[in-house]
Amino acid sequence: MELIILLIVVAILAFWAVSIYNRLVALQNRHENGFSQIEVQLKRRYDLIPNLVETAKAYMAHERETLEAVIAARNQAMAGLEAAAGNPGDGNAMKELAGAEGVLANAMGRLNVVMEAYPDLKANTNMMQLTEELTSTENKVAFSRQAFNDQVTEYNTYRASFPPILFASLFGHPTDAELLEFEDSAEIQAAPKVSF
Amino acid sequence: MNFFQAQDKARGKTRLLTLLFIAAVVSLVVLTNLLVAVAIGVGVGPEALAAQPPETWLLISGGVMGVIAVASLFKFLMLRGGGRVVAESLGGQPIHQNTQNPQQRQLLNVVEEMAIAAGLPVPPVYLIPENSINAFAAGYGQDDAVIGINQGTLDLLNREELQGVVAHEFSHILNGDMRINIRLMALLSGILFIGIIGYGMLRGSTFSRSKDRGQAIALAFGLIIIGYGGTFFGNLIKAAVSRQREFLADASAVQFTRSSSGIANALKKIGGHTSGSQIQAKAADESSHMFFGAIKSFNRMMATHPPLEQRIKALQPQWQGSFEELDASSAPASAMGFAGASAAAPSSPEGVVSQIGQGQIDVAQNLLQACDATLANAAHDPYEARGLIYAMLIDADPKIAAAQLQKIHAHAEVGVPEHTENLLPLVRGSSLSQLLLLLEMAMPTLKELSYAQYKRFNANAAELIVFDQRVDIFEWVLHRVMTKDLYAHFEQPHRSQGRIGSLRRLQPELQHLLSVLAHRSGAAATCYKAGAEHLHLAQPMSALEYFDYEQLNAALAELRELKPHLKQQVLEACAAVALADGQMHPDQHALLHGIAATLDCPLPLIAQPE
């Protein structure tokens, strides 16, 4: 009769392991789904940038280099996004996207500085709308990135806790998911150093 | 049949299923005992069995019941986690409320219209990456329900057909089918587990060399037969129940959309499509009965869905039996427009609580279209939606408003205060019923927040509500809806048992509830009388000096434990109070909304008092 007691104990242990497995899968699904929200916002941002450049072109013909740098960085970031969307949480893809975003942010920052010299451009209604929308979209990116990172952290914490850590590799969750960290926005927004 | 009757019936059915299940477990226990008797070689004669000490049989019986109980409970707890667990296990991805994809946008619009018309919370929608035409509704109650739609459904159906499919799924939510489904799935997995144990023993014993190996193998085979045999009969029951519910859901879909052609055409397209309604995901098997169409072809007895021909014939008796030939490349005809019919303003209290499907979807469609585009967009964006809710909570008094805005600047995330300020004039210009609509629209969007973001949002909203040291009616309703939808999603859904079968015990609560409503109209005494008569309530109207939300919450907490048909009476009485003076005051409309949300009842769209 020990057999039956043993069976029940085995059953409970099996369910316990299954519940760990399910929770790992659920948390992984959740953060992967969370990334698609960032994707929505980033795509919107990448759609806005060419419009902005188009509008700026009419006013600042002499700044072709800056404008081209923005477009190139935007294309780079878009490729990074596509790679990352296929595999959210993957360390390399996340770092690549973050790097491309950093370059884009730098290029945009330079463009902003250059635009200071063109008061006509800054007063253009179209331009004002685009800038406003870009700011708003950037806030939204930050917000959905925060949501994604919260979910990744939850997954990583659960994965690294005891007892799931014993099973995580076995169940196909060998590594932590990567947070998506962009370069600190404070640094980007800091005024460039001007030397006389 | 309305929502309340359906809920009562669903509960009755669940009881019947429980009885069937107990019978199944008892026979399983007896069978296992006999099996063990054979395996250990005592024979099955009555004397031989009686010769064994009774503890032996007690232990075996306890073991079997214990295993089934543990397995069922485990599955039940997992499924109770809500519809998103099921959707995610099928590979579903949530469609974001601010999606730019026109197909997905249309689907979200259809779901939103249907939910607003039925007075249900707008459920999150998941996209299942399969090319066949199918859909499902999953969840335990209405506040954690989700709807899943295959990519193929979006590609191949036009708007009218999509509406038919979505209406079918909503009927499952309204009729309480999901609850039955989840219990069935849990019980079945319990029985199946016995078979799995047998299978495990069989594999284990092939390697063992002990002397009672023969017995162990016999026992294992026995367990496999019992487990899989039990599952087989369980599946027969499941399929029989499911076929009934499918007919019912088809019929309700026609009632909701007032058109049988949408859903019938969708079924015809399944018949003509090369991959029909098949689902490839392995996890789909156990939830086969939740889907719109059969996920694979079974024989007649095991089929979870009636044959397509029968379903179409039931909808369109004159149908000649030709399916629409489809291959994956054919695109749907352009979206069908709907003639803008308007539902008459309800004149009877019965009409208010159970009138789904008399043109409300058209009304909902018109209302949503009439909604200010900026506000509607804000409600669909997880970032701006918070600004929208904050703006709704800003006081009319400029002094308080300024202090509240300051609070938002200090505590909300970057950019949100600006949205709040931008949206504020639009929100102030909206009517109360428009705000209620926007509130419902924002709920699925806010479910996309992360837990940490939700906590912050919730704390901020709560602070804004109590900022002026009092809670007005709109703030109360907003808090009720948020508690119902968001709390259920992020923390724990509140499950009311619905055990109280008499209104007599709850007379003081009813008295308070009706009095609160009556005080919102000019002729409070007459209005109260109309509602009290409906419930045969002898108590006089209580005098209320101000809107005491705590007492109202306490009363509603008791009333939500009523059985569904009694909740219907209570809601009807509330509607009677609100309608007694010939018109529904906006405050009363809002109160009804909050009361229905707290009682877990859908409140179908009411023709707007403008």
Describe it.
The complex is a heterodimer of chains A (196) and B (610). With 196 residues, chain A is mainly alpha-helical. Helices cover 79% and strands 0% of the residues of chain A. Chain A is built from seven helices and no strands. Chain A is rod-shaped. With 610 residues, chain B is mainly alpha-helical. In chain B, 63% of the residues lie in helices and 2% in strands. Chain B is built from 25 helices and four strands. Chain B has helices spanning 3-39, 46-51, 54-80, 83-89, 102-118, 151-156, 159-174, 177-205, 213-257, 261-272, 308-315, 349-353, 360-370, 373-380, 382-392, 398-411, 416-428, 432-446, 451-465, 473-490, 507-518, 524-535, 549-559, 564-579, 586-598, and strands spanning 93-94, 125-128, 135-138, 146-150. In chain B, strands 1-2-4-3 form a four-stranded mixed sheet. In chain B, helix 1 runs antiparallel to helix 9, helix 15 (382-392) crosses helix 17 and helix 21 packs antiparallel against helix 22. The longest helix of chain B is centred in the middle third of the chain and has 45 residues, at 213-257. The two termini of chain B are 30 Å apart. Residues 328-345 of chain B have low confidence and may be disordered. The interface between A and B is large, with 35 and 37 residues.
In round numbers, the mean pLDDT of chain A is 83
Biggest sheet statistics of chain B: 4 strands, mixed
Mean pLDDT of chain B: 80
In the predicted model, the low-confidence regions of chain A spanning at least 5 consecutive residues are 185-195
Structural class estimated from helices and strands of chain B: mainly alpha
Helices and strands of chain A, in order, run as HHHHHHH
Question: Cα-atom Rg of chain A, whole angstroms?
Answer: 23 Å
Structural class of chain A: mainly alpha
Shape summary of chain B: globular
Largest interface: A-B, 35 and 37 residues
Distance between the termini of chain A: 91 Å
What string gives the helices and strands of chain B in order?
Answer: HHHHEHEEEHHHHHHHHHHHHHHHHHHHH
Query: Helix fraction of chain A?
Result: over 70%
Uncertain segments of chain B are: 328-345
Distance between the termini of chain B: 30 Å
The helical percent of chain B reads: 55-70%
Please report the number of helical segments of chain A: 7
